[in-house]
Amino acid sequence: MTHMDKWSVADDLDLKMVIGGERIEASNGARIQTEDPATGRVIGSFPAATADDVGRAVENSRAALKGDWRSMTPTARGRVLARAAAILRREAERMARVETLDSGKPLREAKGDIETSASYFEYYAGMADKLQGDSIPLGPDYMSFTLHEPVGVTAHIIPWNFPLTTTARGVAPALAAGCTAVVKPAALTSLTSILMADILEEAGLPAGVYNVVPGHGREAGSALVAHPDIAHVTFTGSVATGIGIMQSAATHVASVTLELGGKSPLVVLADADLDAAVEGTLKAIYMNAGQVCSAGSRLVVERKVHAAMMERLVPRVEAMMPGHGLDDAAIGPLVSAAQVGLVAGFVDDARKANSLNVVAGGRRLSPAGMEKGHFYAPTIIDDAPMDARVVQEEIFGPVLTVQIVDSPEEAIAVANGTEFGLCAGIYTRDISRAMAFARDVDAGQVFINQYFAGGVPTPFGGTKMSGFGREKGLAALASYYRVKCITTRL
């Protein structure tokens, strides 16, 4: 068996877009090829939706709001979502393999993503029949109560780093609330979002409730957000694009949920369990090769333990061997050649403009048999000043910047020293200091003596330039229903 045979999938991955339950080509016949980031080999393709295609999908989803989906009881909706979770778990091996080939991430991470996606559908299945209103006591001569109604057609603009989990994270609560969804997956990684349509169809979801229009953001994405029949937009991506989406949605007064990335700090105080802190740091920054909006990309370490922390951390990073995701390598490739260039530019700038000390990595890689892949070595930049570009800007790659502080108070100030506020973490044995940090740090999620803790039930979202609105947990549902108040005189 050759490497290329090993790094393949049995499925036909030349897919079509999904509108109204039909698998169709783009109206102009255009298609996008998708490649395996580890080898540069084309593994599949899908249509490049036009603005006309997007318009048809939105119109179809609007019609589906008034069809069988509207008449279905909340309990029946929940059963559809529960069946989708079960089918997705049945198909987990195949879906994980496709996700790895499309995005490059190690297979163990892709398997985790598929399970998380199934968990979203399972979690919100249990909520579909619990979105109940309130009674309002106005006195004996009145009766007043509230209803929760679906907002309507929802748009989901999906990033390329977590294709299926981000799709499920937004679509599952939208469907639980009775909305319909039009999904625009990232042009780099559209496969699993399209394949999800087959799973939802088998689960009994009526045609048109989940439509998928893959394509380029400048055409398909822009047309979707600007469509006057879109009631809510859920977007994960860059700050600049998020601002543009908010402006476009405002023209027809659509609500938005924006998750716009971060530059999250992971603080290690002098009393911390350093071995645990090293494990947490490795997970925080090198999962999915650092292509994670909530990555702990800034290690803020108290000076007393800086040397000891680096003595433990640097050898571990240097030992991480890159490889193909299907081989479950320690670290996989970046998603594209352009992303490698972006990451390399940040590190080169740190060396040249700021004379910063790159103590691990800092170079492009070409593993044997994957010379056309998009690899960059896991990297550590030590003792970076607050105003350095690698500290202030989101790199979205396997690059950890280390900042040294002299006190817990300075650690909080440094943690808050960027325009982002998505996540923050702290390692300390002093629970009072940990809780003070959690109180004072400007972030939407705080992890204590761990990183990436929580899961599907825990609300997720940012402050400052990291965006607004919350996904996951019960908080996510509020984006997808509106409250109607009914009052009558008796």
Largest sheet: number of strands, sense, barrel closure: 7 strands, mixed
Spatial gap, N to C terminus: 79 Å
Structural class: alpha/beta
What percentage of amino acids are in beta strands? 15-25%
The poorly predicted ranges are: none
Rg, rounded, reads 23 Å
Helix content: 25-40%
Q: Can you tell me the CATH topology of the largest domain?
A: Aldehyde Dehydrogenase, Chain A, domain 1
CATH superfamily of the largest domain: Aldehyde Dehydrogenase, Chain A, domain 1
Put simply, the count of helices is 16
CATH class assignment of the largest domain: Alpha Beta
> What gross morphology would you assign?
globular
CATH architecture of the largest domain: 3-Layer(aba) Sandwich
The main sheet orders its strands as 14-17-18-13-12-20-21
What is the count of β-strands?
24
Mean pLDDT: 96
Tally of discrete structural domains: 2
Describe this structure as you would to a colleague.
The protein is α/β, with parallel strands linked by helices and 490 residues long. It is built from 16 helices and 24 strands. The protein has two domains: 3-260 and 468-486, 3-Layer(aba) Sandwich (Aldehyde Dehydrogenase, Chain A, domain 1); 265-454, Aldehyde Dehydrogenase, Chain A, domain 2 (3-Layer(aba) Sandwich). The strands form seven sheets. The protein has a seven-stranded mixed beta sheet with strand order 14-17-18-13-12-20-21, with helices on both faces. It has a six-stranded mixed beta sheet with strand order 9-8-7-10-11-23, sandwiched between helices. Strand 12 (265-268), helix 11 (274-286) and strand 13 form a beta-alpha-beta unit. Helix 6 (107-125) runs parallel beside helix 7. It is globular and about 70 Å long.
